[in-house]
Amino acid sequence: MRVIVDLTRCQGYGQCVFLAPDVFTMRDEALLYDLQPADEHREHVLRAAAACPVQAIHLDRTALSVHQPLDREPRPQPVGGRIVIVGASLAGARAAEVLRRDGFTGELTMIGDETREPYDRPPLSKQVLTGQVPPEHTLLPRLREVDAELLFGTPATGLDVAGKRVLLADGREVGFDRVLLATGTRARPWPDAAEAALDGVYTLRDAGDAVELRQALAAGPRRVLILGAGFTGSEIASVCRELDLPVTVVERGPAPLYNAMGGVIGDVAAQLQRDHGVDLRTGTTVTALESDGAGRLTGATLSDGSTVAADVAVVALGSVRNVEWLRDSGLAAGVWGVTCDAGCRAVDVNGLVTDDVFVAGDIARFPHPIYEYQFMSLEHWGNAVAQAEIAAHNMVSDQAHRWPHLSVPVFWSSQFGVNIKSVGVPTFADQIVFTQGSPAERRFVAVYGYQGRVTAAVTFDQAMWLEFYQRQIEQAAPFPPDFRHVGGKARKAAGAGGAGRADGAGGVDGAGGVDGAGGVDGAGGVDGGPVPARVPERLVAAAGVTVAVTGHDPAERRVSLVHPR
């Protein structure tokens, strides 16, 4: 039996812990579980899944004696043809199941560059690194048997949109009527290839990475150096402290999680790390990884001139979208991902929507109506699942029955004993206010607003409120919230706060900082007013890619991508 919990949906009620304690455990609000429990726990797991009040537990339905009903009835008319899915991770696997669920009866082919079955990645930086769960127990549960040709271990190298062919590394070509692009991302490597190849330097993206890093941590290094304090870097730092390993985190930004949640929550995360013994260095970068001359890492030199001695370094500098294979496809594909419409249909370089090419998951760059139709790419578990379902449904539907991808982004992280969840896009904001709880105690709800409406919320060990705030975002509720809430007084919008900005009143020592009236320990708590959100400047990932327009007559006028030399 395979188990997976949608931790973006889980609200920490804990019924599963009581009903199947050998499979599910909870640390504060952070749920941990065995993704592939022994058969002896089967009945307990079934009871736990049935009792979950938010239905967040998903089981491998092919392993059950009685198949549970699916979410929707199959399409009344079967749909044939040939569909190819390029990418066999979470989004690709989910899309294959939905295609069969929604009545696709034709040929289905899945192409993936890894040789193993689709598996869940979030446990890699958590349970796998601590040794609580072996990598082989992270396989994704199957919601139904999928009749498909599986071409695993064979990466795609090209896409011929006009000829409707996917080109493979081994020279084969796979034809299609419709194709779904879901190739995801890979870890961004350290830019110096020689330094990146040193013994002791790691990245974490796939199961093989997790196995290697787990072995390095289990060997008891003198110090672990982590480059980057985003979610992956912070989670790895948490694991190191759990294993009682000295760890130094170097972050270019002013605080951990800054790029995802802004400076106010970043300040809370920074103090959380330091309280757990992390040597956190913000506002600085690693300029060089040092070696002993025999290919072994010995430490690093930082931009402030200091040095750190370490025998393990983890490069956690974000990700790179796997789109290089689409370079000559004619699609609008670049460092930003693959541009698509809200129905997951890919857009070509001329800005025209394609009919037979769809995109889902981490590489999809789509317009979100809630956020002023701005194009965004979301590397979230929940987004990959939701977008895969939309794409698969639309691939077998006519124009009148296609769905838009309107899911509000939801994300979660477990680090240093705290369950962190967010809904919406925190960086799409100019102000933030703590509506419940205490930032000083790391148990709170923070709500983000932009131009007078709620756009996001972040919870620390208060997950049960996330669904409520998701409805507030969907309904364009006014910001600051004017309802009476648990743990504080009603807050009225009149006269509350000023315009958000990245400095001044929102700085560390100003009215919106850690020590000021709007900060972690001041009036920015549950009874205070809004303060500047201190979010990073919105940047467009161009990396030098631009376009050249040719032709004069409208019938021949076209665009081509121009890549940097």
TrEMBL record:
Cofactor(s) it depends on: FAD
PROSITE patterns the record matches: 4FE4S_FER_2
UniProt xrefs under InterPro entries: 4Fe4S_Fe-S-bd, FAD-oxidoreductase/Apoptosis, FAD/NAD-bd_sf, FAD/NAD-binding_dom, FAD/NAD-linked_Rdtase_dimer_sf, Reductase_C
Entry-linked Gene3D superfamilies: 3.30.390.30, 3.30.70.20, FAD/NAD(P)-binding domain
PANTHER family for this protein: APOPTOSIS-INDUCING FACTOR 1, RIESKE DOMAIN-CONTAINING PROTEIN-RELATED
Positions of the 4Fe-4S ferredoxin-type domain: 1-29
Keywords: FAD, Flavoprotein, Oxidoreductase
Pfam families reported for this sequence: Fer4_13, Pyr_redox_2, Reductase_C
Record's protein name: 4Fe-4S ferredoxin-type domain-containing protein
